[in-house]
Design goal:
Number of strands: 26
Distance between the termini: 47 Å
Strand order of the largest sheet: 14-26-25-24-15-22-23
Strand content: 15-25%
Structural class: alpha+beta
Radius of gyration: 33 Å
Largest sheet: 7 strands, mixed
Shape: elongated
Number of helices: 24
Helix content: 40-55%
Length: 696
């Protein structure tokens, strides 16, 4: 059975606690749903949507799920809230002047003004509370606030009741604005999709949605426009701004024949491009899906807070009931009004929204900041895990080194010339995609003008290739390849990758391939040690001499050379057993999939356009710089600190006011600060991570 997931925008769901309750209840009933309060989005199986709507209506009657969000309507609703609050405030001020400064109306008229002000500001709260009660939801935020203020009115505290409702509504308004601003900051990270494409058809250009363009069609990209689809340049030269994908501001020069990716910005020349992938398979679509779905993989702290709030609010409600009724029953002569007032204060304090909003927002902010720096982290759980890394294992080629191989030296033996060695090696390697093979073929393309001369091609993983070239059997690879066919190579000291060549069973010569170490690799190793990484290891299929040279230059603790892919997995398993914390494997994401999957955190040097990296790894470094790993660890630490600050601040403040309220030392005014004020401050604190400058 095919499950069709549909994405919806959420409207009128302003209570974070309610959002968490909807998601939790749905999952308890077997519905696979991701409700992201930070971005107001919902992803669920289409067939389960009616059942989910019933759950949502019971918990938050005003919640609506739509395919699109009407921003103009949201702005209109905001204006209505502001007008209502201003009107309520004016009426409240008049009532206060009459009661405390210059009495000028009868008592009944004064009470009527207070009630009018109360209804203007609190009507949405009261209506929502009534709907919740009818659906059996007694622990919602609106219910608690309604009971507390109506209770205050019942005991004659009109000014206090109205003040609580007005300031609660003002706090909710500011909270909505703060969360909305955070959402816009987060969504700006995802604003990479282009709404139109300049499709060239029959000599005419027309604007069409990128979803309507098929591979093979031709598009034009004007200066200043964002690249809408992945493709190859047919005509034109330009500089592309890749910062949205890599976090790097240095423009990239492109010309005819180069591949360009959706999400980049064309800064100068007109480009004529042949589309290579449909929109749903394009690079930017995969990134957008990755970033938007990251919030579904929650960190342990997020999961704990969701469960905590589920029990916390009922506990406080029942505690308030006990404070209201037990002392008057157990202590004769005690004022019922006094204890009811204290209980009402506790009800105002009890809402857990400060935690339920700010903690997921903090993690999502951390994920957003990482993506701005060119590091895609697939969930809060991986972001959290990056704080506790004990061991980092690097693949060598393409990770610590540039992976751009060049022929440095050729040696010939047994009567062959250097040119013949290169010609036979290039022909044999013509069908291989291995970086070393490509460097041999690129050395002189004239060697492979006629690949039809190649027969019986066979590639042996981790060793090399065997092929018949012009009737001769050619072996090109490492020492293991030749020894497995009883061919004795001549050992050589070298500073690069040594490729042996044998022809018709006899050793013919060798090719030394050099690979440069990345400019920031050494600094990256030093930064990792600053963040508490105890052990750094390197795995490579290259020779022991090359591995030793790279490890020594970079200051790596352990290295393992001449490995097959299966060997890398077994070594990682052993290192994992020895590790005192999380183990990270950093590879190129193409041929390291088994090792990436086995590590606690798999980090791929994704580069631009590596689909395998995006699909396999938990973390993708977009510009291939190993130094970005320490930046991701730094962001993880900052995010954790902000989340911890919010937890301690919210629980500490609420705990203090609950204690003060229980003994009559906290008023309704202070209770409002303990609820709305704490929530607002926690949200603002959570958004700090988005405002931080980009790491370098």
């Amino acid at each position: 059975m095919i499950v069709v997931k549909q994405k919806y925008r959420i409207k009128n769901l302003d209570c974070a606690s309610c959002a968490a309750q909807i998601e939790e209840t749905a999952k308890e009933r077997g519905i696979d749903v991701t409700l992201n309060f930070a971005t107001q989005t919902l992803v669920v199986d289409e067939e389960k949507m009616p059942e989910l709507q019933k759950i949502a209506k019971r918990i938050e009657p005003e919640a609506v799920f739509e395919n699109e969000t009407d921003n103009a309507e949201e702005e209109s609703d905001l204006k209505k809230q502001i007008i209502a609050l201003v009107t309520s405030g004016i009426v409240f001020a008049v009532a206060l002047i009459d009661r405390y400064i210059i009495p000028f109306m009868p008592l009944q008229a004064n009470i009527a003004l207070f009630l009018t002000s109360y209804l203007i500001s609190g009507w949405p709260v009261l209506v929502s509370a009534i709907k919740n009660i009818l659906r059996g939801n007694l622990f919602g935020e609106n219910f608690l606030m309604s009971v507390a203020t109506l209770g205050a009115i019942a005991i004659g505290e009109f000014p206090e009741a109205v003040a609580v409702m007005i300031f609660y509504s003002i706090g909710e308004l500011f909270e909505d604005i703060a969360v909305g601003k955070s959402r816009r900051s987060i969504k700006s990270l995802l604003a990479l999709k282009v709404n139109y494409t300049n499709l060239l058809s029959n000599g005419k250009v027309k604007k069409v949605p990128p979803e309507n363009v098929k591979p093979g069609q031709i598009i034009l990209i004007n200066p200043g426009e964002r690249v809408p689809l992945d493709g190859a340049i047919l005509e034109g030269e330009s500089f592309l701004d890749t910062s949205a994908l890599t976090g790097e501001s240095v423009p990239r020069k492109v010309k005819k024949g180069d591949t360009i990716l959706s999400g980049m910005i064309n800064t100068s020349g007109l480009l004529k491009v042949e589309v290579q992938k449909s929109f749903e398979n394009s690079y930017i679509s995969k990134i957008l899906e990755l970033v938007e779905n990251a919030a579904s993989k929650k960190a342990p702290t997020e999961k704990f807070i969701t469960k905590f709030s589920k029990y916390y609010t009922p506990f406080v409600v029942f505690g308030a009931m006990a404070i209201a009724f037990l002392p008057p029953l157990l202590m004769p002569g005690t004022s019922m009004t006094l204890w009811v007032q204290r209980a009402l204060v506790l009800l105002v304090i009890s809402c857990p929204c400060a935690l339920v909003i700010s903690i997921p927002l903090g993690y999502f902010g951390g994920l957003g900041r990482a993506s701005k720096n060119g590091v895609l982290i697939k969930g809060g759980n991986y972001l959290d895990a990056l704080r506790n890394v004990d061991t980092v294992v690097f693949d060598k080629t393409g990770t610590l080194t540039e992976g751009v191989f060049e022929v440095a030296r050729v040696k010939a033996f047994n009567g062959y010339s250097e040119k013949e060695i290169m010609e036979f090696a290039a022909m044999a390697e013509a069908y291989s995609n291995h970086p070393v093979a490509r460097s041999i073929c690129d050395y002189d393309k004239s060697f492979i003008e006629n690949p039809n001369q190649v027969r019986n091609y066979k590639e042996i993983p981790g060793q090399g290739v065997i092929a018949e070239v012009s009737g001769k059997k050619v072996y090109v690879g490492n020492k293991k390849l030749l020894e497995s066919y009883d061919i004795d190579p001549i050992d050589e000291e070298n500073g690069g990758t040594l490729v042996y060549v044998a022809i018709d069973g006899k050793y013919a010569g060798s090719i030394i391939i050099s690979d440069r170490i990345k400019a920031d690799a050494k600094g990256a190793i030093g930064e990792l040690r600053k963040y508490g990484v105890r052990k750094i290891a390197m795995l490579t299929g290259d020779s022991q001499i090359v591995a030793e040279k790279v490890a020594s230059e970079l200051g790596i603790d352990e290295y393992y050379s001449e490995l097959l892919p299966v060997d890398k997995v077994s070594i990682l398993e052993r290192l994992k057993n020895e590790s005192k914390g999380k183990i990270v494997f950093v590879g190129d994401g193409i041929n390291d999939s088994p090792v990436l999957a086995r590590a606690d955190i798999g980090v791929a040097m994704g580069g631009l356009g590596s689909d395998a990296a995006i699909e396999t790894a938990d973390v993708v470094i977009m510009d291939d710089k190993p130094s970005k790993l320490s930046q991701a660890m730094k962001i993880a630490t900052i995010t954790h600190n902000i989340v911890l600050q919010n937890i301690l601040f919210a629980l500490g403040t609420k705990g203090l006011f609950i204690a003060l309220g229980s003994v009559g030392q906290a008023t309704m005014w202070e209770a409002v600060f303990a609820d709305v004020g704490v929530a607002l401050l926690a949200v603002l604190n959570a958004t700090r991570i988005l405002k931080a400058s980009k790491d370098r």
